[in-house]
Specification:
alpha+beta; GMP Synthetase, Chain A, domain 3; three-stranded mixed sheet; 3 helices; globular
Length: 100
């Protein structure tokens, strides 16, 4: 796994880290919302930055963000800790555009 001390950070491919972060965040988000089938997470990467976009039903956007941003900040903190350990930054955006 990516957290192993045996893997030098110079050998971690950004695409693999992006896939890993998407697989970490998706179950967390689906457990928070009323319409879990409408959650979609996409990711792009550059050399040292991972960009994640969260698409959800408009009705669930508030649940993902949480009061005063507590939920999304907790998710950001978790993913930033994983990414920082491998010398990557992370940017997360929440887009509530999918209508059922």
């Amino acid at each position: 796994m990516f957290m192993s001390r045996e893997i030098p950070t110079t050998f971690v491919k950004p695409e693999l880290l992006t896939e890993h972060l998407v697989s970490v965040i998706k179950p967390i988000l689906t457990s928070m919302v009323e319409y879990p089938n409408d959650i979609e997470v996409t990711g792009k990467s550059t050399d040292h930055t991972i960009f994640l976009s969260i698409f959800s039903d408009r009705r669930d956007t508030g649940k993902i963000i949480g009061r005063q941003g507590r939920n999304i900040n907790a998710v950001r903190t978790l993913l930033a800790a994983i990414a920082a350990r491998l010398n990557f930054g992370i940017v997360i955006e929440v887009i509530g555009v999918l209508d059922s």
